[in-house]
Write a structure and sequence with these properties.
Layout lengths: L1 H101 L1
Length: 103
């Protein structure tokens, strides 16, 4: 009976050690999983911020492009109007000269 009791105590002690070992392993696994999940979440948030930043930059570039195009159209319009005024002035001048020569 003494031997049996001693054996049972040894088994109990061994099982306690195994349980502690398994608890430690479980804790490490849980901690590792939580850390991986947190890292994944941080990466996803960073990716989202980068995508939003890129989208804002693209929108700003598009706005700048539209502004440049509007300025260019306005400049072309002014140049066209200036050329038209110059042609009209030359036409009037030529008409006046032609009238003087015909007299």
């Amino acid at each position: 009976m003494q031997t049996h009791l001693l054996t049972m105590k040894q088994v109990k002690h061994t099982l306690k050690g195994e349980i502690e070992c398994l608890r430690g392993e479980l804790e490490r696994e849980t901690t590792g999983r939580e850390e991986r999940e947190e890292e994944k979440k941080r990466e996803e948030e960073e990716k989202k911020r980068e995508e939003e930043k890129k989208k804002r930059e693209e929108e700003e570039e598009e706005e700048e492009k539209k502004k440049r195009e509007a300025v260019k159209r306005e400049e072309e319009k002014r140049e066209k109007e200036a050329c038209q005024r110059e042609r009209e002035a030359l036409s009037e001048e030529l008409g006046a000269r032609d009238g003087r020569w015909r007299r």
